[in-house]
Every structure is written in structure tokens, then in C-alpha cells.
Design a protein that fits this description.
By secondary structure, the chain is an alpha+beta fold. A three-stranded antiparallel beta sheet has the order 1-2-3. It is built from four helices and three strands, in the order αββαααβ. It is flat.
């Protein structure tokens, strides 16, 4: 059993190193090719697109909700929970006005040809 735990720990450490390196490479690629949108280098095709995401303010959202019980459903401004409440018609888009900021988030995709 100790070997399983040791291996799990070892793999988690490797995963952290890989994620750190991927993050650094991602940043460099976005800095280099962000304006171009796409590039081809050797056997690889890189494309960068941008998604718009909402970043909610806890205070503004709490103050805009018609019922404080709704806040207990969310407990914080979570975009996924807010989208679910919108989809279920528990809240409407109108009350969310002014509670969030739109942010463009780069999405990086690398394909091998």
C-alpha cells in the first residue's frame, strides 16, 4: 500500500511540473502569436481564439438579487451556477445588469498535421 501512495505522490508532483511548464509555454505562445490568430510552424498548426467570459462581483450580484435565499443557492458569484439559474428561469438576465465585467480569454489550440 505504501508503494501505491508513494507512486500517487510522485505522479502528482510530475503533474504539477507539467502544468507549470504548459502554463509558461501557453503564455509565451499567446504573447508571440496573439495578434496573428493562427500560425503554422513545421508540422504544427497553432490557432488562438478568444472567448468572452463574465466575471461577476459578489457584492453587486448579492445586491441585485430579488431574494436573499437565491444567494444561499450560489454562496458566491459562480458563473456556472448563475448560468444554471438563468437556464431554469429562477432569475432573469435583467437583474444581472452591472454585476459583471466581460473579459476576453484566449483559447490556445495546437494541432499536428
Amino acid at each position: 500500500m505504501e508503494q501505491l501512495i508513494a507512486r500517487f505522490y510522485e505522479l502528482k508532483e510530475i503533474q504539477k511540473q507539467v502544468e507549470d511548464e504548459l502554463g509558461a509555454l501557453r503564455s509565451k505562445l499567446i504573447d508571440t502569436y496573439g495578434e496573428a490568430g493562427s500560425a503554422e510552424e513545421g508540422d504544427f498548426k497553432l490557432s488562438i481564439s478568444y472567448q468572452e467570459r463574465r466575471e461577476y462581483s459578489d457584492d453587486r450580484l448579492y445586491n441585485s438579487l430579488p431574494d436573499p435565499a437565491l444567494w444561499r443557492l450560489m454562496s458566491r458569484a459562480d458563473a456556472g451556477k448563475i448560468a444554471s439559474l438563468l437556464k431554469l428561469n429562477v432569475i432573469n438576465e435583467g437583474i444581472l445588469e452591472g454585476t459583471y465585467e466581460q473579459k476576453k480569454v484566449p483559447v490556445l489550440r495546437v494541432q499536428k498535421r
